[in-house]
Design a protein that fits this description.
The chain crosses the membrane at residues 67-86. Keywords: Membrane, Transmembrane, Transmembrane helix. The chain has five helices and no strands. With 87 residues, the protein is mainly α. It has one domain.
């Protein structure tokens, strides 16, 4: 490192700002999570991401045409949460 080069600035995000940063500046938020090995909300985020992905797949596969609304929601929440947590 040359004397004129400055070390890269470390990203600082407060815990309350993390979820907001995930929506408005995801690159910054994920750099923070990766740099600090921040795992406090990791499992809940994986769970929610699995549910969202399962709802997306259910809508593209027209699952609502074959099952009732409540069955579709139950399947998406249960299996999406499990598979989101596993992945």
């Amino acid at each position: 490192m040359n004397e004129t080069e400055q070390p890269p600035e470390r990203i600082k995000i407060a815990e309350k700002e993390l979820f907001l940063k995930l929506m408005i500046a995801p690159r910054t938020a994920f750099q923070f999570i990766n740099e600090y090995k921040y795992e406090k909300h990791l499992y809940i985020l994986l769970f929610l991401a699995g549910i969202v992905r399962t709802f997306d797949r259910a809508s593209t596969k027209n699952m609502g045409n074959n099952f009732s609304l409540w069955n579709t929601i139950a399947v998406c929440v249960i299996f999406g949460g499990i598979f989101g947590w596993i992945s």
